[in-house]
Every structure is written in structure tokens, then in C-alpha cells.
Amino acid sequence: MREVIVAGVGMCRFGRYDGEREHPYKTFYELGREAVMNAWKDAGIKWKDVQAGFCGSCYQGVGSGHKVLAEIGLTGIPIINVENGCSSSSSAFRLAYQSIATGLYDICLVVGVEKVPRGFIASTGWPEWQMKMGFNVQPAAYAMETVRYMEEYGATLEQFAKVTVKNRKNGVLFPYGYFRQEVSIEEVLNSRMVSKPLTLLMCCPNADGAVAVILVSRKKFRSKKKKVTVAAAVLVSSLYGVERGGGSVKIQNADRTRIAAKQAYEASGCGPEDIDLFELYDPMAPIELISIERVGICKPGEAGHLLEEGVFDRGGRFPVNTSGGLLSRGHPLGATGLAQIAEVVWQLRGEAGSRSIPGARVGMCHTMGAGPNCAITILKA
Amino acid sequence: MVNNKRKIPVREGLFTASSSAGGKPRLLGGKCLSCGEVIFPKLEICPNCQEEKIREITLSRRGKIYSHTVVMQQPRPYYKGPVPYGLGYVELPEGVRIETLFTECDPETLEIGEEVELIIDKLYDDDQGNELITYKFKPINAYASGKNGGK
Fold first, then answer.
1. Is ipTM > 0.85 here?
2. Does B2 map to a domain?
3. Average confidence (pLDDT) over A77-98
4. Separation in Å, CA of A177 to nearest CA in chain B
5. What's the CATH fold of domain A141-202+232-380?
6. Could you list the active site residues of A?
């Protein structure tokens, strides 16, 4: 397998582009264009040198990637549109990575793009009868996981509130995030209940947005930017027995994040102790704690206490979500995976400004999508 | 007033009708004749061992709450029932965990380990004017005083 390098990253600012309540109106392909232009300029390559395009999105309909690239100019390259729930752009990234690693192409574009309506996402990732019964509510699914987590490990609502407080604090320094204001523990706990015990500020906001990445082979890497290499790009689905929506009491296979993390550590030759920063999936505040445990940073039930000791702060031993995570950055489903990758690239290049993790050399990105699936990417400087 | 609405199940094959000869409702599951795994709803192929010999079985009417939540905001556009609503997982003695609606939406009546019983109940009226019916679980102590009362 050949070395694959992230030569360029670019984003548009996440937020609302629905034309309502004084927000501007932009189409998803306009947002995509902005992200692609930023990544393309960052990489210092020629548009007509891009050999293939991969676009992650969930609800943008047919030909989403084609619509984005047509804004800049179609060049006859293959464009592959990838839907894989909230791991859509992580999955698109992996396809581009594989294409270069195996020698098929030398320069690929990856874009993640999404516009999401307000309110609960009308997810279609469930059988029809389950949607009629109101099962397709992400905060509810995560609330039930949270209730178990509290029962088994004694995790507290205050700890969950502190996850939001940490990520919102980080988000103040992330220029492309939706929210850029801090919140207090009390504000999180006292915000309205969405799905017991998750309050509004423990849930990530829906947002519109786009992110793009240019991947190149070593021989085509001519940028003056610091080289960031893809050390692992893993994608798994769940094993029988533990899937959402029921399952087996007798057969309890390992969770998808544990399986993906094991594969990513094997592929990259590093363990959690070697990783300098983590962008972990935090659609709901408690899920960040559960994800921290499942990628192996600590044992089950320990994350809440370590959070309170500051271990996951920007200045802590294992910084988690320096970009503010989904909780602050917002969650344009198909764009989220690449937003994590963009932040890790900026951090590893030393371009993260006031939110920098000094000397960071290795970073991990982690998403979980409907299916269920899980994607983990490890980048090294 | 006569209720002329046609009652239709949210999906065929999930449960037996409650009114049949005064019998009590049952969920319809599947048992793999090869590995013994019990599943709900019944599938054609065992998701555990991939054998195709699945026998339809009726599942126990009582189980225990594995987890729960109360949804406080209207989902769109599929669910048209009342909000808030109680949702959770129930474990049945056969070894299957089932996602379900609860009859209760008061979080105080829903607790991990609480014993619950199957009922068939109205989900909501659909756009064609039919009454959708579905399975739900009801806490056995829902109307007893105190969380641990009446056991």
C-alpha cells in the first residue's frame, strides 16, 4: 500500500443557510463549492489534475457530488456519491484513500455536504413500522444508551453537562463552528428536556455545512505545508446481537467502536497512548464519554471522572474535540466526518492558532452512523 | 357512538390479536432450529447462524425493562401519536430484547428491571382514517403507589 497524504483541507462555516430567522440562504452545492475551493487552494494543485471525486451526504438526493463539482466545472472524472449515515464523508474519505493507496489514482477530492431541517432529523434509517412507532429519534436511541450507562457506571447528569461545557468552550476558538459561545453547567441542565434524561444542550444542533479534503500520493505532494499522512482509515458495521432496535440478550458481541478502534490501532501501529488529540463522535454529551472509553483511552465508567479532572481539556493529557465537536460545531450529517479530519490536519500542521495542541503529531477521528456503522481515521504528521 | 374505524396492525406478523376468543395477546417471534437463537420480529434467515430453519413462536407476555426514555418533542413525519411518549427496551425470558412503546410517559414509573406486561393498544389514526394498532408494554405496578409498591 502506498503512502497517502492529506494535501489540502477546506470548510465553509457551519450554521443555518435556510433563509429563515435572519440566516442567509445557500444551496448545499454552494456550500460545497466554498469548501472545495478552500481545500483546492490549500493543496496548491490544479483543478484539472483531480482524478476522482467522492462525495458524502445523507439527504441531498441524486448526484449530490456532481452538483457540487459542476459549480466549479466538470472535468469528466468519476464522481462517486456515498451515503453512510453520519459516517458518509468518513466513508468517502476511506474510498479516496484506498484509491490512492492501491495505485489507482494520485490525486482525489473528497467532499462532505449537508443541509438539515430544524427539529428532529426525519431519519429513514429504520424499517417503516418502527418509524411509525416513533423509534427513529436519535436523541431517544442515545437516551436509552445513556440510561444504561448511568445505571451500570453511576455516570451523572452533571458530568454530561460538563462535556457540553468543555466542547462549547473549545468551540469559541474554532472559526468554522456553528456555536461560538460558552454555556454554563446550569444552562445545560436547565435547558428543556428533549428525550429523558437528555436536555437540549446535551444534544448537538443540526447545522448546514460542507468540508472538502484533497488526498494525494507521495509523488504528487508538492505543497509547502507540513505533510500529514493517513495512518489508518477503518470502516465497520455492527455485529449481530448488539444492534440498535433490540437484539439478543444471549449473544453480546463487541461494540462497533471497539472493533474499529482495534483495527485502526493495528493498521497505524499506535495505541491510544500515542495519540495527541481526538475528534470523537459526540452527537449527545454522554456519547462522548462512552466513545472515549470504547476507543480505549480509559476503562468503562472512568471517563466522567477523568473529564472532571480536566484530562480531556485542550491542555489535558488526552484532548477531545478541540474543534468543539458536534455539540458546538453543529452536525451537518454528511459533512461531520471530514470536519473532524480538517481539525486534526490543522492541529498536526500547527495551524490551529489559539486552540493549538503544541507538538501534536498523531490524531484520531471517530464517527458512528446509522446502519449501525463506525469509521475511525488516524492521521500522523 | 359506534366506532367504525378499521383497525389495522402497524405491521403484519408482529403480534396475535388480543380479542381472539378472549385470549391474551402475544408477540410473534422466531426461534432458529439450528442455533436456538430467538428473534423478534421473525425473519426468514437466522441473523446469528444464517440457517433458514426458523420456527414461529409466541413470546412471553411479561418481561423486564432494560432501558427507557420519554420523548418530549414531536418526531416527523412518520410518528403521529401523542407526545410525550415512553420508549424503551424490554427483555423477555426467551433471551430477546425488544424495542417498544410504553403505556406510560411518566419517567418516574419507568425503571430498569421493572416488570412489564404486553398489551395491544391504539397507536394513532393514520391518514386513511384507519386506527393503527400496535404492541406496547405496561408497567405492572403503574397504578400502585410508590415505585416499589405492589410487588
1. yes
2. no
3. 98
4. 25
5. Peroxisomal Thiolase; Chain A, domain 1 (3.40.47)
6. 86
